[in-house]
Amino acid sequence: MNIILFGPQGSGKGTQAEMLEKKFGLYHLSMGDELRKEIKSGSALGKKLEKIMNKGLLVPSEITNQIALKISKLKESKNGIIFDGYPRSMDQWLFLKKNFKIDAAIELHLTEKESVRRISSRRLCPKCGRNYNTIYIIPKVAGRCDDDNQKLVQRDDDTPKAVMDRLEIYHSQTEPLKKEYDKLGILSVIEGDQSIQKVSKDILASIKNN
Q1: What was the pLDDT predicted at 153?
Q2: Model-level pTM?
Q3: Which of 13, 36, 118, 123 is catalytic?
Q4: Does 178 have pLDDT greater than 90?
Q5: What kind of fold does domain 3-111+160-209 have according to CATH?
């Protein structure tokens, strides 16, 4: 089972993808995480990506397409893949459709105002990569990771300007893909402005009905 999970920044894609990963034995392919790994490596490509992402711009499709294909081949033993943060444009979707059978495309709908509010409260452990949110996913000790007690940080691409730039790209390039998913009968729209548990329940119901 291959699932596309999409929505504006802060809609909870990562959290819901992790829950689906555990329940169905799928591989969670977070394109954002993969790109940040490349940046952390200090490679020439990583430095290029860092400049692009800090400006809130869309990473070129030739890079994301090859990453998606490479990782999927490495994880063939899994029961399927959750594509989180990919595809984000029509050419990425055409590449994905050509190389994978997609069973469901689930949008986590969120208003722009709520998206900005959530992202501004997002925090990350620089050591283990665990994500937190000062609204919903609150660490046991304020400002510290539950697993390794590292001080939580805010990502460079979570600044207000970068957030607004990414939202503009989402509305202009990613949202139009809904029509493509709808044509195939695989589209479900879930309201993201609910509790984590309610969103999860709605997602599972939509998968069952697909």
Answers
A1: 94
A2: 0.78
A3: 13
A4: yes
A5: Rossmann fold (3.40.50)
